[in-house]
Amino acid sequence: MKKIFLSLILLALIISACENKIEKTSIKSDLLQIKNNESNFVELKDFESKAPDLVGKKVKVIGTIDHVCQHGGQKMFLVSKDADARIKVVTGENMAAFNTDLIGETVTVIGTVDELRIDKEYLREWEEEVKGKKIVDEEEENPAMHAKEQKGQQIGDGEHHEEEQSSEMQQIINLRQQLTESGKEYLSYFSIICTDYEVVEQPEEAQPAA
What we know:
This protein has helices at residues 2-25, 29-37, 47-50, 120-131, 143-150, 157-182; strands spanning 58-68, 75-79, 86-91, 106-119, 186-199. It is an alpha+beta fold. It is globular and about 55 Å long.
């Protein structure tokens, strides 16, 4: 009878230990499930290096939103605590604008990798627009602004238009220099056209046992 009683106590201790272990590992379980079960999952730190082979393909990434464009909410930027990486995410067709309340939230984003190529012809046409004093549509992609945003250099909406008008020629000169130094035919800037996203619920930290 004593043996049976001792066995039950031992079994209870084993079960309790297992439960504690599960509790400790549950913090990362959701993210691990996403990473392990999705063949199209890309780590934020690897996005820039893998992007050339993923253009036009659907991917899933996880990151923390550090900026949402206040002018229309058509783009946001994801960063990672584990790496010096920043990804631009734009709204896809028929998608609602990103809400600025999302800043600071960790999200999973599903979308298609897009590439903006800047070559000599692109820069020549841009220069002609500037010399001809044509106003560039604010909705068009400005490669210099894209490059600054990717590096985390935020520009206010009011300053954005003024910055474009006052320094576009310098931006063109800088991009031409970068293009020459690269030895390539074009410069590439990658982003994700979002089709869906979801906020990742962060579990509360486990309280130490009394």
